[in-house]
Backbone:
């Protein structure tokens, strides 16, 4: 049963465990430093499909099938699936999950969707509302570019603060297996807007939300950053990570020694020419479900705060002069239960 | 977070790396200049083959547009543009790329509502305001000629 510690932070007393998880990644990601951690590597970003949107749906099909397979489960064993993606009307998810027949709740949290879906799946499981619940999200570079920016073959230059949308997906199934990784707590973020308008600087738009969520969680739990082996943000990239550290320093919270960002881990920033790092729902999802959960299971990390960050950006409203709000949700993962 | 939007904007500006103009501007001049040199070479070639100066200039434009469209289709143009920036954007080749790239991208939504409707999504404003500017120019010229 979940206990409310403060307005937005919950302690998940039954310590739900991540009984299975899987990650898939595209071509550029398979050339990056984390390639060996992904379950499926696509050598062609089209994944044999006619459109980029279909390719993204295919990734969700593949990653959910892989997670079910690794846990010796079938779709019928899952009570609820919480999932979403970046595309308009979450089409990547809707077509990806169409054939699975699992009761579904669609989420839009921009790039924070992995943490959002994992929060909800864990809360449902912790309170006995679900025996097993699935959390999943994805993003596809080509599908995102055409929706949010320019056609792929358009000859434009990216700014130094721009980030590269990850082609990848992650899926995890929450239950009670009594084996790590465990979810010990969650903190739901607030929409935070500090007036950033540059759509090529998402890291700056999201950093205040991440700082706010982390500060709230640390205050609620009475813990310090050094109590954790890793504080992992979703896709702040180089600029956003620096801003997060600076914002927290102003609040006398020092995280530099334990902080890292999925957008900085998934690519080799220099040789892969990704400017400020990776981004997208699939960034946090594939790094969490590919790399981090494995490391917790192996006991390399004991306590990890996973905080996926989302820039709630719409090209339409930005063109109308609106600023870009950010959001960040936090999941406390551990190798030992409460 | 006790911080004003202005303070954060300032913090964000300091943390965000700037475009290295000392690298991008010379590159733009170099590659832009190279495209113009190719254009001049083509004009010379066409005049040499017997075309009048006016026809040679027109044929050069057509050739450059064709080359740009071809390179866009072969997925090469954007890779050159990554280094060239304004060097590939400003010449007529940039305009061709701006029309061909959405045509390729939105073909998946059909020839009418996809390719046809979205082909000018980038180049459209250039045509609209280019036409408007030429009307204004014509008007000014007309007024000057009255007196």
Residues:
């Amino acid at each position: 049963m979940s206990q409310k510690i403060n307005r937005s932070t919950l302690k998940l007393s039954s310590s739900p465990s991540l009984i299975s998880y899987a990650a898939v990644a595209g071509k550029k990601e398979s050339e990056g430093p984390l390639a060996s951690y992904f379950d499926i590597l696509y050598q062609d970003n089209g994944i044999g499909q006619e459109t980029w949107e279909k390719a993204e749906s295919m990734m969700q099909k593949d990653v959910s099938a892989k997670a079910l397979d690794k846990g010796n489960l079938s779709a019928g064993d899952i009570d609820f699936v919480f999932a979403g993606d970046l595309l308009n009307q979450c089409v990547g998810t809707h077509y990806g999950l169409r054939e699975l027949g699992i009761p579904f709740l669609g989420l839009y949290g921009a790039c924070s969707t992995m943490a959002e879906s994992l929060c909800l799946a864990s809360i449902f499981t912790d309170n006995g509302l679900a025996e097993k619940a699935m959390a999943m999200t994805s993003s596809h570079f080509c599908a995102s570019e055409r929706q949010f920016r320019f056609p792929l073959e358009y000859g434009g230059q990216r700014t130094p603060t721009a980030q590269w949308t990850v082609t990848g997906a992650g899926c995890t199934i929450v239950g009670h297996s009594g084996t790590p990784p465990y979810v010990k707590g969650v903190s739901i973020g607030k929409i935070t807007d500090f007036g950033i308008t540059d759509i090529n600087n998402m890291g700056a738009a999201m950093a205040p939300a991440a700082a706010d969520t982390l500060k709230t969680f640390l205050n609620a739990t009475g813990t310090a950053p050094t109590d954790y082996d890793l504080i992992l943000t979703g896709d702040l990239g180089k600029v956003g990570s620096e801003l997060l550290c600076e914002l927290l320093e102003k609040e006398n919270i020092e995280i530099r020694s334990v902080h890292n960002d999925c957008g900085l881990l998934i690519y080799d920033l220099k040789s892969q020419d990704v400017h400020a790092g990776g981004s997208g729902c699939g960034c946090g999802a594939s790094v969490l479900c590919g790399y981090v959960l494995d490391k917790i299971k192996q006991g390399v990390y004991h306590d990890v705060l996973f905080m996926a960050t989302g820039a709630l950006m719409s090209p339409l409203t930005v063109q109308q002069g609106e600023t870009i709000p950010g959001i960040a949700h936090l999941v406390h993962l551990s190798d030992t239960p409460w | 977070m006790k911080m004003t939007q202005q303070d954060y904007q300032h913090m964000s500006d300091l943390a965000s790396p700037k475009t290295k103009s000392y690298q991008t501007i010379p590159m733009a001049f170099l590659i832009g200049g190279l495209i113009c040199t190719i254009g001049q070479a083509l004009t010379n070639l066409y005049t040499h083959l017997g075309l009048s100066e006016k026809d040679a200039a027109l044929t050069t434009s057509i050739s450059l547009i064709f080359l740009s469209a071809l390179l866009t289709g072969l997925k090469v143009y954007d890779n050159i543009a990554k280094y060239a920036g304004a060097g590939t954007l400003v010449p007529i080749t940039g305009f061709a790329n701006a029309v061909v790239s959405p045509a390729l991208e939105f073909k998946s939504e059909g020839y009418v509502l996809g390719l046809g409707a979205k082909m000018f999504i980038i180049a459209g404003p250039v045509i609209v305001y280019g036409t408007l500017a030429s009307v204004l120019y014509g008007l000014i010229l007309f007024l000057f000629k009255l007196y």
